[in-house]
Design brief:
Number of helices: 6
Structural class: alpha/beta
CATH class: Alpha Beta
Number of domains: 1
Largest sheet: 6 strands, mixed
Radius of gyration: 17 Å
Number of strands: 6
Distance between the termini: 14 Å
Order of helices and strands: EHEHEHHEEEHH
Helix content: 25-40%
């Protein structure tokens, strides 16, 4: 049975302000006090894992050990079948050290030249780690397709080129609340809540 988290402070193991805001919004209904890794001066560990799960666990463990608090880490990315699954776990690295996702989206478009396959998915893995080394990891996904040129300025990362299945707007055009309801991170978060967060009913 998964370990439960209730009424505790929680470190969100990211230095990405957009990701921090999105995860904090998802946590708000549970009354958990959160702090970002950047605000606590925690270093960013090198992401050496070969999967989203491995990298999420690596980041969560590092933050929990350094802070002495439970830590929640996310590893997420864009998976494009026509590119052999790229950029995948290297999604952030395609944007470079300056996090230039406009450049990364241009690179995706360039590599897709010559193919009409625009299928894509966003994947998010969340790991909740405790200072004693215990971890719980979940995975969420949302299927869709890519559009060019990018549309919308909301959110961060590759969202301006991703249209979820059954929709017409990109994640970059959607109201944040609408996106949170269907995103890969929301899917993973629902799974994590079911496993690890005490509900208001006390269940």
């Amino acid at each position: 049975m998964a370990r439960r988290l209730s009424g505790e402070r929680l470190v969100i193991a990211t230095h990405n302000p957009g990701k921090l805001a999105e995860i904090a919004a998802l946590l708000r209904p549970f009354g958990v006090a959160v702090a970002g890794a950047g605000a606590l001066g925690l270093p960013e560990p090198e992401e050496t894992g070969a999967t989203f799960e491995a990298n999420a666990e690596l980041k969560a463990r590092a933050a929990a050990e350094a802070s002495g608090l439970p830590a929640l880490a996310d590893d997420s990315g864009l998976v494009v079948p026509a590119l052999g699954g790229a950029p995948g776990i290297y999604s952030a690295r395609w944007a470079g050290a300056d996090r230039d996702f406009a450049r990364a989206m241009t690179e995706v478009e360039a590599r897709l030249a010559g193919t009409t396959d625009r299928r894509a998915s966003f994947v998010a893995c969340l790991t909740l780690a405790w200072p004693d080394g215990h971890v719980e990891t979940v995975r969420g996904e949302v299927q869709g397709h890519l559009v060019f040129p990018p549309r919308g300025a909301r959110g961060f990362g590759y969202v301006p080129i991703f249209v979820p299945a059954g929709g017409g707007a990109t994640f970059g055009e959607m109201d944040p609340a609408e996106k949170h309801a269907i995103s890969h991170r929301a899917d993973a978060f629902r799974r994590l809540v079911a496993a690890c967060f005490a509900r208001e009913t006390g269940a």
